[in-house]
Structure formats: C-alpha cells, structure tokens
Amino acid sequence: MLCAACDGDLPQVGAACPVCANPSPGGQRCGSCLKRVPQFDASRALFEYRHPVREMVLALKHGQGFALANWFCEKALPLDDLQPDLVVAMPLHPRRLAERGFNPIMLVARELSRRKGWRLDMQGVVRDSDTPHQAGQGLKQRLRNVRGAFRCTTRLDGMHVLLMDDVMTSGATLNELARTVKIAGAAKVTNLVLARAVMSMHGR
C-alpha cells in the first residue's frame, strides 16, 4: 500500500509508558499511571496519531479504505509477545453500528486473530450506552461519560484479554472496557491500538 520510503516515514512510537503507551523517558511508567493506576495492565500502539496515519485511521473508520484493515493487521503481526487468551474489539452501540454498517476495528481484529490463531470474542461484550463523542472534554468528564457503558455476558476467569481500538487518546473508554472485563474475571488486560494520540497531560 505504501512504498518503502513512505512506510519508513510513518510516525513510529518511541519510548513509551508500558501501561498507557504515552511517551515516557526511558520507557518507564509515567507519572499519571503511577498516580492513577488504570484498570488495564499494558498498552501497545502501532503508531502515533499523526499525519498520515491519522488520515488512514479516519479513512478506515468512514469506510473509505477497507484494504487498510489488512494493512494495519500486517503491522501488528510482529507482536508475538502478546499471546492473549481472548481478543475483544471495542464494541459499538447498536445504533451506531446500524448507522455505520460495520465496526472498523472489528475488521482488523478479525483478520489479526485469524492470522495469529487467537480467539476472537464477537458477542460476549456489548455496549449498552451510546456515549457522546469525547473530543474537547476533560478526563473527569470522559470517565463519567463512559461509566457503565459496557456489559460482559460471559465469564473470563483467569484470562489475558487483549482489547483492540482504533485510537487511544485519554484512554477513558478503554479503561471502562478493561474494568468491565476484569469484573467478569479477566486476570490481565492489554490494549492494542492502531494509533496513540500523544497527550502532554493525560489520564487513563
């Protein structure tokens, strides 16, 4: 999809906090995660959310580049150290799913799980609340917006669950999803996102 030169110019993730994937000197746990421990245990991002990855993610979300799902999958294939027991793609509320017609991150999760031999959960975690868009809101409001948004319909006792989403900004939505799967018994939760929006002052 991209020539070697363009591929090499993509915004790579440098030294980052192992918990939230925000830039952190020496790859150490950042101050925000030390102060407010997230519900998830680790996070990995394929890229930083900057040009041209930003435009590629938006094209995938708006159905303008389904081939991008396979491209992002290819970029995630080398992550052999993850080894989850179960993969959960960030669920959409039924209303949004009906409007959009597809869940973009599910496209990536399905292909990645197939090629890695991972078990993908398709229906066990549902989104009950059609939460408002989080852009422009502070962390506290973001956390309030998504509180109780998800429901797990199956037990996940002792499992390492990999949560997949397109973009991680404050991490509030992933944090609530992680809380939900841990209530269902998950022992470890790792986030895998296509892109990480760099936050100078960030939370979960």
From TrEMBL:
Q: Which family does it belong to?
A: Belongs to the ComF/GntX family.
Q: Cite the source lineage.
A: Bacteria, Pseudomonadati, Pseudomonadota, Betaproteobacteria, Rhodocyclales
Organism in which the protein naturally occurs:
Viridibacterium curvum
Which residues does the UniProt record annotate as the domain Phosphoribosyltransferase? Answer: 99-195
**This protein's name:** ComF family protein
* Signal peptide bounds: none
